[in-house]
Amino acid sequence: GNSVTQMEGPVTLSEEAFLTINCTYTATGYPSLFWYVQYPGEGLQLLLKATKADDKGSNKGFEATYRKETTSFHLEKGSVQVSDSAVYFCALSDQSGGYQKVTFGTGTKLQVIP
Amino acid sequence: DGGITQSPKYLFRKEGQNVTLSCEQNLNHDAMYWYRQDPGQGLRLIYYSQIVNDFQKGDIAEGYSVSREKKESFPLTVTSAQKNPTAFYLCASSMGWGSYNSPLHFGNGTRLTVT
Fold this sequence. Notes:
The complex is a heterodimer of chains A (114) and B (115). With 114 residues, chain A is mainly β. Chain A has strands spanning 3-6, 11-14, 19-21, 23-26, 32-38, 44-50, 56-59, 62-65, 75-77, 86-96, 99-104, 108-113. In chain B, β4 (31-37) and β5 (43-51) form a beta hairpin. The chains are: A mainly beta (114), B mainly beta (115). Chain A binds chain B through residues 32, 34, 36, 41-46, 49, 51, 89, 93-95, 98-100, 102, 104-107, and chain B through 4, 6, 31, 33, 40-43, 45, 48, 50, 56, 90, 92, 94, 96, 99-109.
C-alpha cells in the first residue's frame, strides 16, 4: 500500500533560518502530493500541492518539488518567521477502488524562536 | 464563505455512553471523511463517503458508526465499543468522484474526552 515518511520533530529554528522538512513516499500509482499545516487547536489547511513529476508547489514562501526519481517532496522555506510555528503534514492522494485515498505522514512540529 | 463546521469544539462524556460528533459542509463537495488524530500518530482514517447514502470503512472503523443522509452532513457516532475514544476528531471533504487530485478541506476539529 501507499505510505508517507517524514522527518521526526520537533524542529527548532531561529527566526530567518532556512527550513527543510523531508518527506518521502511509496506509491503504486501516480499520486498527487500535498503539504498541509496545522496550527494549535485547529484543523489542517492546505499549504501547497503538486500533481505530477517535476511540478513545484509554492505558497507563502514555502516550496516543494515533486521528485519521482527520489520519491520525495521536501518542504523548504528560505527565511522562517515565528508565525510559521505549527505542525506540517506531508500527504499523497491516489485513487483506490474508485475512491480518493489520502495517506498522511505523522507530522513534523516546527518551532521558530525569535 | 464556504467551509466545514464541526461541533462542539470540546466534548466530555462518561465511559459507556455513545456520543455523536457533528460535521456540516457548504462547499458542495461529494466526498466526506472522518479522521482521528492522536499525538505522534498523524491522522488515521475512520470512515469516508463518496456520495449520499454510501460510506466505507477506513483503517480504524471499529467502535464507530456514520450516516450520510444529506450531502452536507456526515455525523460520526463514537460508541461504547470504542476502547480508547479520547482523541481529536477531524472531519474533511473533497470534490470526490474522479477528482483524485483535489485537496481535502478540514473543519477545526472536536476534542473528545471520555472518563
